[in-house]
Each structure stands twice: as C-alpha cells, then as structure tokens.
Design a protein that fits this description.
- The protein is of the alpha+beta class.
- Helix content is 53%, strand content 18%.
- It contains eleven helices and 13 strands.
- A six-stranded antiparallel beta sheet has the order 2-1-6-5-4-3, with helices on one face.
- α2 runs antiparallel to α4.
- The longest helix has 51 residues.
- It is rod-shaped and about 150 Å long.
- The N terminus is likely disordered.
- Bound molecules: adenosine-5'-diphosphate.
- The site of adenosine-5'-diphosphate has 22 residues, from α9 and α11.
C-alpha cells in the first residue's frame, strides 16, 4: 500500500510542495484583496468621496443663483460631467441625453451629509446637492475604456501571479532535485547495484548528503569485496589441510568415528568447491562472450540431462524466434540451477514442472513453474542473497549451500537481464528470466 501511495503524484514531496505553493498563493491573493477592500476603502475611498461631495458643492456656488445654464455647461464640458438642475418651475441638463437619474433601485447611497448625497451603481457615481431654490445632480461620466482597462489589469495581475507561482515551484523543484537523485541512489543500492553513484552538483546540505551517500556506498562495496576475498582465501587455504586430513583418515581403522569424519570432510570439500566455483563463474560473467542464442533450442539441448528426472518437465514456447544475446553456457547454469531447485522442492509424483518461453514488450521471458513446497513471503526478498537458505536444517540433506540463486542473479545482472520470483507456500514457485529480445538487422 505504501508503495502505491508513494507512486501517486500527490503523495510525492513535489506534489505536497505544489499544494503548499497553491494554497499559499491563494491565501496571499485573498489577503491582498481583503486589504484593498477594507483598509484602502477606509483610508482612501471615504475621504475621496467626501472631497468630491464638497467639490460639487463649490461648483453649485459657481453656477450661481439663479443657476446659469451657460456657466453649468462650461463647467460640465471642462470636467466631463453632466449637470442637471430642477426646481418646481424649471429643469435642464447639460447633456442632450440625460441618464435616468431617478431610478433609485439601481443606485446605492454611500454618502449623505448637509443636503449632499453620493450614490453609486456599477462603478458610476451621481451626486445630489439640495439647495433652497432647487436640486442639482452631477453625473460623473463613465469612461468605458477605463472599465476595460481595469479588467485587463486584473487579468494581467492574475497571469503574473500564476507565472510567479510556477516560477517559484520550478525553482523549488530545481533546488530539491538532489532528493530525487538520492532516492534513485538508495533504490539502486537497495537492489544491490553498489556501482551506482549519486551526482554531486550542489554545494549545499543536499550536495554534502549525496557526497556522504557515495562514500558510504564505496565503503560498503569495499567491505563486501574484502569479505568475498577473505572467503576465497580461506577456502583456498582450507583445501590443503583438508586433503591432508583425508589422506590421514585412510590410515585410521574402520569404524563409526571414521565414517562420520569422512562424511564431514566430504561436506566441507563440496562446500569449498561450491564457493570456489561460484567465484570462478562470477569472474567469468564479468567478461562475457555473448552470442545470439535461440532459447527454445538451448532448453531442448538441456532437456537431454533431465530425461529420467521426476517430476517430468514440459516445454511451452509461445513465440516464434525467442532469440537472445547471451553466453549460452552461463545461461545453461542459471536454468540448470532453477530446474534442479524446482525438482528438489517438488513432489516427484506431483504435476510436471513447466518451462514457458513467451514474448514481452521487446523482451523474452523464460519462466520455470513448479507446484512444489513454495517459499514463505518473508524469505522471498532474501533468496538471491549468497548463502541464504529457507530451511537451514535441510542443508545437509539437500546438499545446497544457498549460493545457487545468488549465482543466477549475478549471471543475469551481467547479461543486463532480470530474475524474478513469485511463490506461494504449499502451491509452488515461478522463477522468471527476462532478457532483451535480439533482432538481427
Ligand atoms: P540451494 O543451493 O541451497 O538450493 P539456492 O540459492 O538455489 O540454494 O536457493 C536458496 C533457497 O531458496 C533454498 O534454500 C530454498 O529454500 C529456496 N528455493 C529455491 N528454489 C525453490 C523452489 N523452486 N521451491 C521452493 N524453494 C526454493
């Protein structure tokens, strides 16, 4: 479940970062809007409205008593205003098409003091100034271009804000790129690829972490090499005393003690031979002599060795040319190991072991399916490790030392192939070998 979660973009570090950035951007926008609406309204709009109201009051004084239409027209033209006047005996307007100023439904009163009221509707404003001789109405002429300009500015603002959000996301992603490299590095090392190094392109904390990670991998690699070398050296050195022991044993009188020591000596010898043989093959798989090989032919060649074995083996080739580029002797060792295990862990009178060769996308998959004892789930991740055995006590009886599958993996890795296992205890196991499909030009 955890793996599935981490694969979903929203559960990734960058996904969370994106959500945080979007939420932060949204909050900043909201705060800026609230600031403009409330703070600026209090501190700029209200005094501005008051000043306009007073200014209109001065204009009514300028128009005089009785109000002069000519004077009003002059003021209206120079200030982009419509001035209307009405009293019981006369009514005039400086605009030929006066707006419907009386329609009080659409107009909201935002200021009212000393006979002066300011009304607004959709960004337009009208100011009423009541005098003893009549009522003046001033209409601030709306400029459509201004409104459009306002909308354009808002759109530009939103685009710029979005761009800056994208830029900040991109830069944070760039800063955190080493996390992705480290994640790949940990994955590779976890898979056993100790040659993988994490790029060090930064000189910040993440760069230093990558450097420490590479040093750690290097150290683990050299420790493993030292351990392997020690094992080889000890195995080599043990051969001579073991031979001496076997010779000395021949001079001992027959008896139970002699038989037991002889059995132990044989077991030690075969263990040493297995270790040295594994080292030899590991070395051989480092310098491969690959050739295009027909997998079905290789299998039928191998089947000669398994003619009289039980349970029997069936072959199912589901593709026309299962040709792969491999060193066939090494791949035979892999298949032999898997077949021997399948036979060893199956009931001799049980159902047959199936060998299936089938196509995958640009790949060929060879699987060996048995219906034997199966492998417990807790052991599955370890069975390709050297000397790992599921049932340690069976070593003596079955003769294995847990290096067969580790060797198979080494050989498959050297071929850039893969070895996978699926198993259910009591139902059986399927080991799959995956190769790149070789297509001749
Ligand atoms: P060994 O030489 O001891 O068989 P391997 O490396 O070949 O070592 O296998 C490691 C362990 O994996 C074995 O001890 C065995 O328990 C388990 N195993 C391998 N193949 C099978 C199989 N087909 N069915 C059940 N268990 C298996």
């Amino acid at each position: 479940m955890d793996k599935m979660k981490s694969n979903k973009p929203l559960f990734s570090l960058f996904g969370k970062l994106l959500i945080i950035i979007i939420l932060t951007g949204f909050c900043i926008n909201l705060l800026v809007c609230l600031f403009f609406l409330h703070f600026l309204k209090k501190n700029f709009r209200d005094p501005y409205i008051r000043n306009i109201a007073n200014y209109m009051n001065y204009i009514t004084q300028d128009i005089g008593i009785p109000p002069s239409f000519e004077r009003a027209k002059k003021i209206a033209d120079s200030n982009q205003l419509t001035i209307s006047y009405k009293n019981p005996t006369q009514a005039w307007s400086t605009s030929a098409t006066p707006q419907n100023l009386e329609n009080s439904d659409r107009w909201r009163t935002i200021y009212e003091q000393n006979g002066i009221s300011v009304k607004t509707s959709h960004g337009r404003k009208q100011i009423h100034v009541n005098r003893s001789h009549g009522q003046f109405t001033f209409m601030l002429e709306t400029d459509d271009a201004h409104t459009v300009e306002g909308y354009i500015s808002i759109v530009i603002l939103i685009v710029l804000l979005s761009l800056s959000l994208c830029a900040s996301y991109g830069s944070i992603r760039w800063v955190l790129r080493p996390v992705k490299w480290l994640q790949d590095g940990v994955h590779q090392v976890g898979e056993g690829n100790l040659d993988h190094t994490v790029p060090i392109e930064r000189y910040d904390e993440l760069g230093r972490l990558a450097e420490a990670f590479n040093k750690m991998t290097e150290r683990i690699k050299s420790m493993i090499q030292d351990r392997d070398q020690l094992l080889l050296d000890v195995s080599h050195e043990l051969r001579t005393p073991l031979t001496r022991m076997k010779v000395a044993l021949e001079f001992l009188p027959e008896g139970l003690a002699k038989t037991n020591i002889q059995e132990d000596a044989i077991e030690m010898e075969s263990m040493i031979t297995a270790i040295l043989e594994e080292a030899r093959l590991r070395h051989a798989s480092a310098k491969l002599r690959k050739q295009p090989t027909h997998l079905a032919d290789l299998i039928s060649d191998l089947m000669k060795e398994y003619r009289n074995r039980k349970p029997r083996i069936t072959i199912d080739t589901r593709m026309e040319k299962p040709i792969v580029q491999v060193e066939s002797e090494l791949i035979k060792i892999v298949i032999r190991n898997l077949l021997n295990n399948a036979i060893q862990y199956s009931d001799p009178d049980g159902p047959p072991i199936k060998v299936v060769i089938e196509p995958k996308v640009e790949q060929v998959m060879l699987s060996i399916q048995d219906q034997g004892s199966g492998i417990p789930p807790q052991d599955l991740p370890h069975i390709f490790e050297p000397f790992y055995r599921v049932d340690k006590s069976r070593s003596r009886r079955t003769g294995g030392y847990g290096i067969g599958l580790s060797l198979c993996k080494t050989i498959m890795d050297a071929h850039n192939g893969k070895i996978e296992v699926e198993s259910t205890p009591g139902k059986g196991s399927t080991f799959s070998l995956i190769f790149d499909h070789y297509e001749s030009e």
